[in-house]
What we know:
41% of the residues lie in helices and 7% in strands. By secondary structure, the chain is mostly helical. A 3-stranded parallel beta sheet has the order 1-2-3, with helices on both faces.
Amino acid sequence: MTSKPLLLDELKHPQVKSLIASGMDMVMLPLGAVEQHSLHLPLNVDWLLAQEIARGVSAITQVPVLPAIPYGHSSNHRGFPGTYSLKPETLQIIIEEMCDWMYAEGFRRVLFVNGNLPNQFPVQSAIANSGVKHPGLRLRAMSWWDINPELRSWFSTDESYGRCHANVAETSLMLHLRPDLVDMDKTYRMVGQGLRPFFHYPHAAVSKDGHQGDPSTATAEAGKRYFELAVQSLAEQVKLALVETPPKF
Length: 249
């Protein structure tokens, strides 16, 4: 294990060529959003978490990681200041064009490490199109809360109105990674635990200040534990993905 991630953008182009020629055919691309995260968290939560988890995995596996794409699909947050969203079709095009470039470079395995839930839909559409265009390209999108069942359970433990946003999980992770950007004095428990509306509503219709759940219960200790769980668990999966061959039947 090495303690230093392999950041693709810090290499010179001959080094990138040599890396691929040596047999490294996998790359990670973190995806996030620049959007409001209530009164207590900054706008960079989603891309920062995706980036740091991907870099942690790279430090263990030496799979190179590209710079995060910070902007995502966040139109649901309209009405709160500090949200800068792409249309879903715009994000889809960006991902498809990135796949074209990664494939042309020689990468054949791509993992998108995602930190913003609505990104899942345009990214999966992009994967569908890119998989048809480049049959030899193996693609996977993984949201950090879906890395393993324990993370999924923790992420949704305090959901309100069926949503988790700037909640105990995201707040704990930020307390671990960037405590200087967290204002715990402004956290409080949102109403709506256990309630799931039938229809989808804009965020401003189901949250007074922009969060769901109960971030007031967040701790840096929990953030450290679950961050390390995310990195270790995903690293183990990536090690297997590096040598995976198509199923035989």
